[in-house]
Amino acid sequence: MAERAVTVPESATEEFARKGYTMLPQFYDAERDVAPIQEGIRVILELLCRKYQVDAPTDTAWNAMTLAYPALIAKNRSWGGEVYDAVKQIPAFMQLVSKIENSRVFEALRPGSVPGLAAGGYGIRIDNPGEEKFRAQWHQEFPSQLRSVDGIVFWTPLLPVTPDMGPVQIAEGSQAEGLIPVYSSDGGAGKTGAYALFMDRCDERLSRYEVVAPLTKPGDLVLMDFLTMHQSGHNVSKMPRWSMQFRYFNFADPIGIRIGWCGSFAAGVDFGAVLPELVAQRENAA
Ligand SMILES: O=C(O)CCC(=O)C(=O)O
Ligand SMILES: [Fe+2]
Predict the structure, then answer these.
(1) How far is CA 185 from the centre of its chain?
(2) Which ligand number lies closest to the CA of residue 216?
C-alpha cells in the first residue's frame, strides 16, 4: 500500500528551520480526528461525576470539559489527576498520536531522519485558571524528554484557545541557543520533576527573541523544535485549556544513538546522569 503523502508547505519548513516552530492550520480533521477524543473525554467525565456524585453537565463534550471538569476538581483536586491519567488512554487519542501523517511531517521538517514516536512523551494537558503548580515555565523540550536532540513537539488543542486562556508562548528563533543547561527548584509553587527545571540565564537568553503565542483551534497543529524555548501562558480565563501534545524524535541522530534513545522523567531517567553537560551549576544560574 502506498504511504500516505503529506504536503508540508515550503513556507512551513522554512519557518520551522528559521524560527524553531511552525503551525499547520487544520492539519487534522476536527470532526474525524478530534471529535472522537472529545467524546472519549466526555464519557470519562460522566463516569467520574457519577462515581464522586458531582452534579455537573456531561451531555456534551464541551460541557464536560468546561463545566464538569472544573466542578469535579473544585470538590477534590486529586480527582483531576484521575482524569489526567485516564484521558491519555482514549484509543482515539492514540490513533491521532500515531497517525502516519505525523511521521511524514517529521520527515519533511527533518530531512533524512528516521522518525520515532517517544514512549511516554504523549498526553493531554488541562491548564486550569490560576494554577501555577503544573504550568510549564520557560523550557526546552530536550532535557525533559531526551530521545534525540532534533525531536519535535506536536501540540494541538482540544478547545479553541483564546488569549485569556494562556496560549503557549514561543521565543522565536531561540533554538539558536543550542542546548541550555538547567537546574532544579520548586519555584515556590511546589513544582516537581520536569516542572521544576529552570534554564541557566533564562531572562538574558529570552531578551534576545520575540515571544509569540499562536492562537489555535481543534485541527490546528503547532510544531516546536526540541531546542526552542517555550512556556505555558497564564490562564486567566474561566475555562480550563485542554490540549494534546506528543513528541517524535530521530533515531538517526548521533546523540540519540549515543544515549540509546533513552527518555527522561517519564522513563524514570535522571537526565543529568545521561548528559552531565545539561546540568547547570546553581552559582551560575540567574
Ligand atoms: O501547553 C502548554 O502549556 C505547554 C506545552 C509544552 O510545553 C509542550 O507541549 O511541550
Ligand atoms: Fe514543552
Answers:
(1) 21
(2) 1
Residue 262 domain-assigned? yes
Check if 135 has its Cβ closer than 6 Å to any atom of ligand 1: no
Q: What angle do CA 37, 230, 61 make, to 5 degrees?
A: 20
Query: What pLDDT digit, counting tens, does each position of 185-208 carry?
Result: 888 888 888 898 999 999 999 999
Query: Considering its fold, how many domains does the chain have in total?
Result: 1
* One-letter-per-residue 3-state SS of 154-175: EEEECCCCCHHHCCCEEECCHH
What is the domain range of residue 25? Answer: 11-284
Residue identifier of the C-alpha nearest atom 3 of ligand 1: 232
Residue 3 lies in a domain: no
Q: Which ligand is closest in space to the CA of residue 241?
A: 1
**205 alpha carbon – ligand 1 mean position (Å):** 19
Which tens digit of pLDDT belongs to each residue from 97-147? 999 999 999 999 999 999 999 999 999 999 999 999 999 999 999 999 999
pTM above 0.90, yes or no: yes
